[in-house]
Amino acid sequence: MTISQKAGENEQLFGSVTTKDIADLLEKQGYTIDRRKIILAEPIKTLGEFKVPLRLHRDVTAEITVHVTKEAE
């Protein structure tokens, strides 16, 4: 899944990608995941590819790949 954000020249985001952003994007794709089940140590603040674990159940964890790209100006 891909999230586009405004970023500066050194690949730093002007904001950050949070669990709420990821949950909203998943919902647009037809998946309802509580943002508290998305495990991020800290918000994503740079462009790139990130592995993000989802705790679907106490014993079930899935991993998604989030691509953070620069928003077209």
Low-confidence stretches: none
Whole-angstrom Rg: 13 Å
Helix content: 10-25%
Overall number of strands: 5
Number of helices: 1
Cα(first) to Cα(last) distance is 20 Å
Shape descriptor:
elongated
Strand content: over 45%
Average predicted local confidence, pLDDT: 92
H and E string: EEHEEE
The main β sheet shows up as:
3 strands, mixed
Could you give the order of strands across the largest sheet?
1-5-4
Structural class label: mainly beta
In short, what is this structure?
The chain has 73 residues and is mainly beta. The protein has one helix at residues 19-28, and strands spanning 2-5, 12-17, 44-46, 48-57, 60-70.
Task: Describe this structure as you would to a colleague.
The chain is mostly beta strands and 73 residues long. The protein contains one helix and five strands, in the order E-E-H-E-E-E. The strands form two sheets. It has a three-stranded mixed β-sheet with strand order 1-5-4, with helices on one face. The longest helix is centred in the first third of the chain and has 10 residues. It starts with a strand and ends with a strand. 8% of the residues are buried. The mean pLDDT is 92.
